[in-house]
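Sequence dictates fold. Next comes a concrete instance:
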Amino acid sequence: MADTKREIERKYEAGESAGLPDLSGVSGVASVVDKGLAELDATYYDTADQRLAAASITLRRRTGGDDAGWHLKLPVSDGVRDEIRAPLSDALPRSLAGLVRSRVRDAELLPVVRLQSARDVRHLLDASGGLLAEVSVDRVHAERLSGGDGSTDWTEIEVELADDGDPAFLDKVEKKLRKAGISRSKSASKLARALAETGKPAETGKQADAGKQADAGKQADTGKAKQTKQTKQTKQAGRKKPKVVVTAEPEPPTAGDHVLAYVRAQRDAIVELDPAVRRDVYDSVHRMRVATRRLRSSFRSYGKVLDRAVTDPIGDELKWLAGELGVDRDQEVLTERLTAALDELPRTLFAGPVRTRLRTWAHARRGGSRRRLIAVLDGKRYLDLLATLDSLVAEPPLLKAAAGPPDKVIGKAVRSDFAKLTALVVQAIDAPPGTDRDLAIHEARKKAKRTRYAAEAATKALSEPAVDLVRSMKSLQGLLGDHQDSVMTRLSLRDLATQAHAAGESSFTYGVLYGREEQRAADVERTLPGAWAAIFAAAGGLVGRR
């Protein structure tokens, strides 16, 4: 079983002559306790082309110390990583293998670097004896195991904040270290430094000599060339003005550049969110689903930029993935909405074990969806989709319009989406209450999302008008989304009421909640005409352009 620890740390350069200063004077530190020396031996794994290192992910098997085992470190922000640990074993545990699958795909994980460290550890304690931070001086020997055969040695200082500690404390420690002439490390991790310093195979004696001779020859030739050039310049001085060198300005970004930047960002989001979805991190499923929808929408909105003969089949696969993610996400939304509704309900309106039945219902449906989702992420169809997206980004199917000016090409696409949205909103407002209006509002909501995503991709090209449209579409999407959530919640309440009745329980409370949801939907329908009029007026700066 793997467990997770949030790691907040900073690394510092420590030369051979630089020692660790006295840290007892750091504000808040009551005592510094020497915890002794630990011998650590870690082997780091990656693909032959270092896919994990490129994403600042480290995977190692370490012995020694008090946390021997497999460690996977996933970046969160600068200096912050989530470390997922698994017990020591010969083979990589399945729990960790799944967390790197979106990066590794079907490539083999190889031992790339071995790090042997002598770690001198000290604990910084507060007045009550509580741990503030762990400070270690690491003397490291790194040996390349694949992709090179070099080795290197260095010493560094590492300061790791205690669990639930205040990150501001690290600033206090750093101030003390800087006064002692100790600066931040240029490498984000030991592995990054080891890879950088051991990447080239060691040269043989003959190769080194040949290289030196070649360098000497180049220096001699360069010296002669400089001398000749200087002589010519001296002779020409006074006879004519020096030549002005004009540096070519970079080409301005095209419509295709803007669209591809947006596409690339969504592809990256899907890959980066994969481990979080597997770990069931809050809101990760929703964020990954949004990335798939943004990507699919951009293909459809910008069909004049990217060839839809290529992107439509990819869009179908993205729709499939969004659907699989939606099974879990929709259940999250429904459970949260029903729980909140119960919290608002007076106790006098409770009849029967309503909360217990809701928990049982939610757990049963969520458990199945979680297992299914993990199976999807482990499946060939999903991994093939990731590979296809990589190929699309590497060799985009650009059409003629991709080379056009962004304001015209992208602006036209956004206006087209907004025009279609306008027709759907008017249709929803005019539809009779009931199923017809429910369906019309749902279609308008989907188009509002697409218009929002198209405007997101256009923000750098169209500036403030696009930003305003994104804001308006987000507001409209929220309004229409509340209506759709009410429709789906009422279906779930009917399901819960049926189960309760079959078990001999009262269905009264479910009926009360059903009526409240009907009222919420009716409120949205009354609000929609005025809200849309304001949005349409505000969008005039962009959609009125031609």
